Amino acid sequence: MLRSRLSKPVAFLPIEIKTRLQIANLLLKHSHNVNHAKSHLERSQLLLKSIPSYFELKCRAYSLLSQCYNLVGAIPQQKQIINKSLELISTAEKGLAVKLWACNFYSQLANALMIEGDYRSSISALEQGFSCTTEIYYPELQMFFATSILQVHLMQWDDVNLVKRAVKNCDEVWEMIPPEKRQQCIGLFFHSELLHTFYLLRICDYKNAKQHDYKLIATVKSDLEKRKGIQDLTTELNSINQSLSQSDLKNNERSTLSTKQTQIQEHLKTVACTESLESSYFGNVREIWGDKLELAPAPIDGEWLPKAAIYALVDLMEVIFGRPKCLFKECGRRIQSGVHLVKEELMKLGITGGVREVDLQNLAIWMAGVYLMLLMQFLENKVAIELTHFEFSEAQEALVEMKSWFVRFPTILQVCESIIEMLRGQYAHSLGSFTEVTFYFLEAAKLTESKSMQAMCHIYAAVSYICIGDAESSSQALDLIGPVYGIMDSFVVLREKTSVLFAYGLLLMKQNNLQEARICVAGGLRVTHQHLGNIQLVSQYLTILGSLALTLHDTGQAREILKSSLTLAKTLYDIPTQIWVLSVLTMLYQELSERGNEMENSEYEREKINDLQKRLTDVLSSIHHIKLIKRLKIEARLLHDREMKRATAGPSIRVNLDIPESIGLTTPAPVPSTRLMDIDTGRRGKKKI
């Protein structure tokens, strides 16, 4: 019908423009034919030039055309059309509708600038949008801009005080929204709570971060229950409609069913929808419990991430909180849930076994990037968890899958290349292949621009050099640790400080500088215990302190510390650390002439060594093992420059999930007393950061 309207001579120009806008809107909502929609909108824009007024029509055309340019990755054209829109806004009479359209265009401009990596200008555009919402006192829209500003600050993170100020602003604006309206702002709630969680994780404030996580879990549960209630009502309504369509239905039955039909329809309308302030201007009725978590009302009408991605992120948060506490069973359940959800969404996008990055349409790249990045985060955590309790085969399988996804989608997953190299290093280190390990970690450092990641790569490589054990390797370890140790207090994340203290303490112990090593390790343990809560790292710090105490002939303290470490290592199923602790305990019993304890301890140690050796034998025979430890970079073909900008812009989850305990390391147990310089890597097992 709309097409036929265009084929007839049109005397009144706005009718043709409105028709083209309707067609474009339908194409954008119900098809992938963005180019066709764009041609209608470009034609509408040309026609609108000859009309002096029609502010509303021009804004609609500009907004839709801007969205089209964004979808096809034509960011310069998008910025050009938005600037025209803002010029139009500046000449219009001020009113609510004008302010709302200004908010729309500032939001789209900020997004375009963020894709280009111009964070400063993006924040400036968002701040102008925030000013507009303040003038009309619209707290929900203020919250949209406040959370968006926080998101960009988290991505940029060049001034921690600016990030803190953005967090505080979000809290203040959220309190301005009446409680009954907050329940309708589900998308804003998820956006704000997840951004708060990312921020608190970044500064290692796990206690407060967990409080936000509890809220997220409760809201997901409530959302699922409400959606199920709506689905049940919809099913019942469909059944009633089917019954009412029967011609032989008795009058009294039809009357009863009609009453029931009306009741359910009213109930559904009440539960699922709400009228918004701007409905009189834009005819907007928002579905609160649909598949879209809107961040803002029309004409912005946008979302941060799809609901499925939000649910997956909440699963991922649970994994991140559970890993340091070694709640591996729950972590495994959440990883399985998240991976299943993500892969379902990838299939909906047409990403099945044989599909590669070059096969994707440009408009699908960003959405694919959201789910692929989430998938890689889940797999990264799976590798780390499986290596923590030395399930080598499971870790190997997850790492091989990460490599496979990267080869197929190298541009979208470009940021993951350094993570994969780090995980390859951890995998090789767990198997004792120390000479290969340093290659992977130093290669990973070259592949990232993150100063934090580079520091961790150098620390990990240094630990590997320490494990090699000769004088030259120790010198190379010091060259890597020294610069990081010198600036460790400058890092926002405490991961770098605890890791460099661990590595430096290990090196001092290796060099027989025992008192200084003790001070260094004790400082690292204190930070780890107070701020990170990482049980495994605490266990390993205790083992080093126990070894140092024994070497310094403080046998009473050594016994107490080592028993605590062994208890934690058993809880974690961390076999190498158990072997390490047991070997030191054997020496303790020898020194104390406790023959019975020595024999019992040695027997238990042999059992653990045999268990570890069996696991090593199984994984070394795998066909994937050689490929994982071979000193070769992963080869993959990237997209063209314009496509790459669009693909690598992606959602902020790439930057925000810089989790402090994302990777662990193993190192053989340092031997106390006079044998400190002669580490028996084959017998002592390995320990993990």
TrEMBL record:
One of its GO terms (biological process) is cell division. The keyword Thylakoid does not apply. InterPro entries: MAU2 (IPR019440), TPR-like_helical_dom_sf (IPR011990). Residues 670-689 are annotated as: Disordered. It is found in: Nucleus. Gene3D superfamilies: Tetratricopeptide repeat domain (1.25.40.10). Signal peptide: none annotated. Keywords: Cell cycle, Cell division, Chromosome partition, Mitosis, Nucleus. Coiled coil: none annotated. GO terms for cellular component: nucleus. PANTHER family: MAU2 CHROMATID COHESION FACTOR HOMOLOG. Belongs to the SCC4/mau-2 family. This is Sister chromatid cohesion protein SCC4. It comes from Kingdonia uniflora.
